[in-house]
Amino acid sequence: MSDIFPKWTNKLPLRVLVGVALVGSVATAGVTYYFTPKYTRVGYQPVQPVPFPHSVHADQLGIDCRYCHNGVETSWFSNIPSANTCMNCHNQLLANDPRLAPVRESFASGTPVPWVQIHKTPDYVYFNHSVHVNRGVSCFQCHGEINKMDEVYHAKSLSMSFCLDCHRNPAEQIRPPEEVYNLNWQRPENFARDKGAKFAHDWKVNASQNCSACHR
């Protein structure tokens, strides 16, 4: 009596399992590579409750970053200013502008303006703003030309490779302490070789590449 099924079908379950494993591996690799901030966050520009232009405040008016983000030098988190800070100016300037209605309401009620967070790191990543800005790393390095933005968007990838590129060669990224908040500062030619390395040495910049530096 002849077999009901051809002999090659005996290997069919194994072939199916191998095929599933290969497809799963390719899918996992693709998700791991493309579902990173470089591909999922760069360019992200949510609609905010108030159209705040950094190009006006930071660039045209020259307001220091620390006036609004006043905790950046002492905290891991660069705080969002409260309505009180905004109203220091806007109780006189554009006091009745309808675009600022949410700010006035926040000031009166004490309820924070519901800003949409743009820059995020995963929960398993530790990042301290104060450590970086106090060692010559400007806002510009991670946030791009934020002083030129009418509406803030996610400009840099902030991926692990992005961070490691800086940690491997901090002399290329740091600047003089008095220029950290000068977003129009231009790096002189050969600065990293002539002064960047000296700053890194004198300030004891320990740009660790150990996993535990960021994954705690």
Account of the 3D structure:
- The chain folds into 3 domains: 7-37; 41-80 and 119-214, no CATH class; 81-114, no CATH class.
- The protein is flat and about 90 Å long.
- α5 crosses α6.
- The mean pLDDT is 88.
- The chain is built from 11 helices and no strands.
- By secondary structure, it is mainly alpha-helical.
Task: Annotate the secondary structure layout.
Elements: H1 12-34, H2 37-40, H3 54-60, H4 65-68, H5 83-90, H6 101-109, H7 129-133, H8 139-143, H9 160-168, H10 191-202, H11 211-214
Helix pairs in contact: 5-6
Biggest beta-sheet profile: none
Shape: flat
Relative strand content? under 5%
Q: Which value, in Å, is the CA radius of gyration?
A: 25 Å
H and E string: HHHHHHHHHHH
Helix and strand composition category: mainly alpha
Distance between the termini: 67 Å
Q: Into which percent range does the helicity of residues fall?
A: 40-55%
Show unreliable segments: none
Mean pLDDT comes to 88
Number of helices: 11
Number of DSSP-assigned strands: 0
Q: How many domains is the backbone divided into?
A: 3
Relevant terms:
216 residues, 3 domains, 11 helices, 42% helix, flat
